[in-house]
Amino acid sequence: MVFNWLAVVAAALSSFVLGGLWYGPLFGATWMKAAGISAEQVKNGNKALIFGGTFVLSLIAAATFAFFLGSSITAAQGALCGFTAGLCWVTTSLGSTYLFEHKPLSLFLINGGYRTVQFTLIGLILGAWR
């Protein structure tokens, strides 16, 4: 199967940008508190590893999702598939893990919300840019 690598890169970049907003100004303070990490820990992390690794992982997710979706979908179908995958596969998987790890509901909602929007955007971009 052949798919549009520019769309895959754009979808990965959208995940990266969304994550910066989601875990920064939108929910950053609440996320740090729920995750039990400090602003100092975030500030002193290995930025090259964190941001480089995040982009590579986003690229893998976008490429795999492109393969899963195929080449004959629309933007609306891609967004719906992305929403469904993010909410029903990724978020539910996080939820079962968080239940066993006794993680707070707020962390589940922030991380699950991000993954749902992330895959919705990935699907939208892949469907729109065939």
Structural description of this entry:
Helices cover about 85% and strands about 0% of the residues. It is built from 6 helices and no strands. The protein is mainly alpha-helical and about 130 residues long. The mean pLDDT is about 95. The protein has helices spanning about 5-25, 30-35, 40-45, 45-70, 75-100, 105-130. It has one domain.
Structural features:
6 helices; 130 residues; mainly alpha; globular
Percentage of residues in DSSP E strands: under 5%
N-C termini distance:
13 Å
H and E string: HHHHHH
State the total count of DSSP E strands: 0
Total of helices: 6
Helix-residue proportion: over 70%
Structural class: mainly alpha
Radius of gyration: 15 Å
Number of domains: 1
Mean pLDDT: 96
Tell me about the biggest sheet?
none
Helix and strand topology:
Elements: H1 5-26, H2 28-35, H3 39-43, H4 47-69, H5 75-101, H6 105-128
Kindly summarize this structure in a few lines.
By secondary structure, the protein is an all-alpha fold. The protein is built from 6 helices and no strands.
